[in-house]
Amino acid sequence: MQKFISLIFIFSAVQAQVSQTTIQDNSDVAVDDTIYVIGSKQKAFSSPGSAHFIDDQALEKFDYTDIGRVLDKVPGVYIQEEDGVGLRPNIGLRGAHPHRSKKVTLMEDGILIGPAPYSAPAAYYFPTPTKASNMEVFKGPSAVKYGPNSIGGAVNIVTRPILKKTESELNLSYGKIQKAMLSNSGTKGNTGWRIETHRLQSEGFKELPNGADTGFEKNDILAKYQFDLGKALGGKSQTVALKASYADENSRETYLGTSLVDFDANAYNRYTASSNDEMDWKHYQLQLKHSVKLNSNISLNTTAYHHKFQRDWFKFNKLKSGSDMTDILLNGSSARELAIIKGEVDTATDDERLVLGNNGRKYFSQGVQLQSMITFDHGDFYHNFSLGARFHRDQVKRNHTTKEAEVIGGKLSYVAGSDATTNTTKDTSRAITLFAEDEVNYNDLTISAGARLEMVKTKREESLDSAMNGENEDNIFIPGIGFNYMLTNDFVFVGGVNKGITLVGPGQDDSIEPEESVNYELGFRLKAPIFLEVIGFYSDYKNIKGTCTFSSGCDDSNLDAEYNGGEAEIFGLESAASHTFKAGKFHFPVELSYTRTVARFTQNTTSDNKEWGVGEIKDGDPLPYVPQDQVSAKVGLDFQNYSTSFNTIWKGKMADQSVKDGRRILPSYAVVDWVGSYKYSKKGKAYLKVDNIFDNTYLVSLRPYGARPGKPRMLSVGLTQKF
Length: 723
Known about the structure:
By secondary structure, the protein is mainly β. Helices cover 7% and strands 54% of the residues.
């Protein structure tokens, strides 16, 4: 094994999930410290497979602080809203369940960014959206190289690069959500740097009976340092880069929604039982990267990384009586218990007490990622070959505790001596990931054939129940092939087939199988006279897998348990179009996208998983929280220094669960955002922005407990200034 690992290092093998690409068309950027997967819209156009690139201009247009609003424009992406402001986004790709983005590989600058991607893939942490310079989204064959979980695809957040010339930037906004960003970047001699600080805060838009705010405060500090070894040593082109960041959040958020009657009366009211609910987390990131270009054909990159994430999640768990919360909130099974949760009557017995929990967890994620990119000609064939490996270890330690509280005079009062520990599980994963891909160009045809090998060992240690202890080992091979045929310079056919995978987590029963699918896609792209992309996709699931989480309605007795769902299929159509119409000095940019998705089980099975519903699942029953239809439309007007734009998101109805008995349908809804801006100088812009301009009240979730809304109308005014 030691010789095998040495060989990998000799070849600079890397998980080559990404290739480092210098931005050739941006003279303001220094030797680039930023890792891209696509790198440009042009590269996305010629990519063999489904890939989307969101550039800095698109991000700056609406200056969103909610990553869901950014990704909603990409066809095939599904965002299940939860808190209304995107603190913990739920991202799904091509029908994969969006819950906690656990079936999507999340990266920042090409490095895994989830708290513990193998041991606990549910993404309770997500990079602050205002850090992003670009965003990249991959589906189908384009996602084969990104793991561990590639059943849906991958999302890469690209942070701002180091600049050649020294420049500072200030971005301020005031409104229901307030934002402040200050950055400085530049290069002197052989040294480049970037320092950024981000602050987001809000008093919240929901209302508690005691009048306390329901908002959040979020801080993010990022520092980059880069030294050009090539210039210093007068040798080969090579750099050393250090990246460090610290982020924290305190948010008075809750999993507790309301009854449907109360939602209709005032969707933004919260119940007394959630008065003390609060998320408090801290995230640390440290990365060291060495890049060297041996010659014009070979480049080697090595990145060592260490991330830490620590959280305390104080929240209402349940009633001590054990009554089903869904029955109370959505079926009206107990008017008295609902009145206690609302704070309208006092608790009278021990069983009527509230159980409040703190799901405290500590995570780390660390490893070494290496990559080698080799380009060469072989007759009429041009090869872009990559080898890759990643050596990774991550862990989550759970320290879940509960305490009881009584409702007295509409307020919560803790019960002395009621503290209890409910979960002290520690899950650890070790993984070696190998990857190889050859992208071959022959005349107008590009074929990309690649495969990833995941060799994973997991271990669960449970001090409260030794029977749950255990170790597992999986070796999984994930191949894929895609093509791009250029019929003309402006028209290409794309397609491919790949295997999708979601790994089995630590501590699962031997009967639990990995989630596996065979994914197909076929379509075309047109670049002129308008941009148009249409891709059909079909995913044939050998086994679809579900996970029981607190946010889907489970408690500590079966928390993180996984379930086999059997066979399923997801198929549909993704389309996007854009064009800028011109009339003299007036420009009218228009962007449209439409996604049609059918996601359903294809065999009968029995479900004990609350994510799907408890009971019998029949052939043809829908997968939850996947809208059948979804539309995004952006229409703007640019005239000299003035700009205005409307962004509309429409999502069709979706099922709350798969099991027919108790299934509810969330109605379709539309949200329209508007922004207007004025460039008062070459480096300065003032803007006015209104999210949900028509103040539409809409239902986004019934999980885990009751109805929860999207955000109401929110106005903000701001400015950006570079100097």
